[in-house]
Amino acid sequence: MANTYTWTISALDAYPTTPQPDCVFNAHWQCVATSDQTQTVNGQTVPYTARIYSTCNIVYNPNEQYIPYANLTQAEVLNWIYENGVDQTATQTALDGMIENQINPPVISPALPWSA
């Protein structure tokens, strides 16, 4: 099983004026894993997917160069979340487990033997 991972920033929370104009203090992020294995859903073949969504506090460091909000890039903010505690490997491992549990469920709920 080979999964691909897509990391994105979906929103940023910022202080309007202090300590810098529009200073980001929180990033909303998600990682989506897409499997190379597929399943049939409503007659269509689709890959297995799993998603983790969370937030990460961004600690302002006055010793680093301030980047104006309008100049931020997704790559820069992703680096911030990794530097502030989001573990890429652990996140991707968790997503792998979620997809594995979809493919090979550890628990199932079969129909009751007495129902029609």
Briefly, what is this?
With 116 residues, the protein is an alpha+beta fold. Helices cover 22% and strands 40% of the residues.
If you had to describe this structure to a student in words, what would you say it looks like?
This protein is of the alpha+beta class and 116 residues long. It has one domain (3-103). It has helices at 74-83, 88-103; strands at 3-15, 23-41, 44-57. The protein has a three-stranded antiparallel sheet with strand order 1-2-3. The protein is elongated. It starts with a strand and ends in a 13-residue tail after the last helix.
User: For the report, how would you describe the main beta sheet?
Assistant: 3 strands, antiparallel
Could you give the order of strands across the largest sheet?
A: 1-2-3
- In the residues, how many domains can be counted? 1
Give the helices and strands as they follow along the chain: EEEHH
Structure characteristics:
about 120 residues, 2 helices, 3 strands, alpha+beta, 3-stranded antiparallel β-sheet
Secondary structure topology:
Elements: E1 3-15, E2 23-41, E3 44-57, H1 74-83, H2 88-103
Antiparallel strand pairs: 1-2, 2-3
